[in-house]
Write a structure and sequence with these properties.
The chain is of the alpha+beta class. The protein is built from five helices and eight strands. The two termini are 15 Å apart. The relative contact order is 0.17.
């Protein structure tokens, strides 16, 4: 919704630098979200989850391929990120619409395809 469009996947996903796992988990703990594995295991696997009554997927890999083989690198997405003021002096760092579309192509599920369609419309309207 931060980009102006609610998406259908209705879950939370974060892609963070592997050096930020401990700080990210500490911030998530304030919302009672607990990691499913320790930081070293998360680095080896390239992903983990934070859970309570919510489920938050966290990717920590340097790059992830899309279903059609496009390699998407964290550092490149981070360099292009947008900062959006969410109030109270807090800003959220989010991918550009084009980069969000790329990340939706990691799994390419039907709900991701619908999100891609809607994000494409939003991008084209801007």
């Amino acid at each position: 919704m931060l980009l102006g469009l609610p998406v259908l996947t209705a879950d939370y996903d974060f892609w963070i630098a592997s050096d930020d796992i401990t700080a990210f988990n500490a911030a998530a703990a304030t919302a009672a979200l607990m990691p499913t594995v320790d930081a070293d295991t998360a680095r080896r696997r390239g992903r983990y989850a934070l859970e309570n009554d919510e489920h938050v997927d966290v990717v920590v890999a340097r790059s992830v391929p899309t279903v059609d083989g496009v390699e998407v690198a964290f550092d490149a997405l981070w360099a292009r990120r947008q900062s959006i003021d969410i109030g109270g002096g807090v800003a959220a760092q989010v991918p550009t619409i084009d980069d969000l579309i790329l990340t939706k192509r990691f799994a390419n599920r039907p709900k991701d395809l619908e999100d891609i369609r809607l994000l494409t419309i939003l991008r084209d309207e801007r």
